[in-house]
Design goal:
metal-binding, signal, Four Helix Bundle (Hemerythrin (Met), subunit A), electron transport, mainly alpha, 0% strand
């Protein structure tokens, strides 16, 4: 059995399951989606740092997860869901257009990298810098840091 095919199937199943589970706009759904993006970024980071070998299928799966999840993420912040979430700033609901634009940029940037798939760890690292900048900028504005 081809382990790369199995890994890709598991990653895509995770995307589908996560998308199905994360449609209710709850704190848990939001956290689940952020964990999907974080896990994908972690996989890219391991390749960029050389702790995991370059694997085009793993890079594709991670970028697909980021693009898909970032696109759906703002839908989890519907009006009336702003209470009870200790990590999401009320600024999200006050600046929803900016929040959505930032998520769309992350998704679009991930799709662009996917279309021009990096061929090695250095390329993955360069892509990760761009994607990480998107994540960091949004977190700086819209995430409440825990003590």
């Amino acid at each position: 059995m081809n382990w790369k095919a199995v890994a890709a199937a598991v990653a895509f199943a995770g995307i589908a399951l996560g998308s199905a589970m994360a449609v209710d706009g709850t704190h848990d759904a939001r956290i689940g989606m952020m964990k999907q993006i974080g896990g994908a970024a972690g996989a890219l980071s391991a390749i960029a740092k050389g702790t995991k070998p370059y694997d085009a299928d793993a890079v594709k799966a991670a970028l697909t997860t980021i693009a898909t999840t970032a696109k759906a993420f703002p839908d989890q912040f519907k009006p009336g869901t702003e209470t009870g979430d200790e990590e999401a700033s009320p600024k999200i609901w006050e600046n929803m257009d900016d929040f959505k634009a930032r998520a769309a940029k992350l998704s679009t940037d991930a799709e662009t990298v996917l279309a021009q798939l990096p061929a090695d760890a250095a390329g993955v690292g360069a892509a990760l810098n761009t994607l990480g900048g998107n994540c960091g900028g949004c977190h700086q504005l819209y995430r409440i840091k825990k003590d």
